[in-house]
Amino acid sequence: MKNIYDFRVEKMDGGKQALKDYEGKVLLVVNTASKCGFTPQFDGLEALYEKYKDQGLMILGFPCTQFANQDPGSNEEIENFCRLTYGVSFPMMAKIDVNGDNAEPLFVFLKEQQGFRGFDLNTEKGKAFDERLSKDDPDYAQKSDIKWNFTKFLVDRDGNVVARYEPMVEPAALEKDIERLL
């Protein structure tokens, strides 16, 4: 696979979505969860979407329950939660795995293109995540795996994965990078 447009993903209703349909758009691909400390980032993601969708931004949410089972509901329950609680109007895809043997091929590709670059250890959240993950795996930082919910990947209009942002990076912090690509 050469770029993101080579992938098809499952929609909430079970249908398939060709990412080629988004060719020419700037994409922000996010693994999400409904019961996570980062769940309020849906507000920031929706704000970015509303502000930039007419200029060519598309956000795609992919629920995942691999991190502390923080999205245990059905696709329908997750979609209703996102729409009703946070007013999410960008597309939410079917629940997936982002790591392991059953990882969604799109996320395998995203991780190959933009590996983990570390947490900001100048923040409390960054330090806490580093401590927690180091206990389970002292080499965690050398692996490209998704570390938690709300990891974000930015894709340019040509389908190239240009940046990865870890969960504690708020959506508003991506605005300048998005504007450069639009």
TrEMBL record:
Protein name, as recorded: Glutathione peroxidase
Family listed: Belongs to the glutathione peroxidase family.
Biological processes annotated in GO: cellular response to oxidative stress
Coiled-coil annotated residue ranges, if any: none
Active site residues according to the UniProt entry: 36
Gene Ontology MF: a single term: peroxidase activity
UniProt entry keywords in alphabetical sequence: Oxidoreductase, Peroxidase
Listed PANTHER family: GLUTATHIONE PEROXIDASE
Top-rank lineage group of the source organism: Bacteria
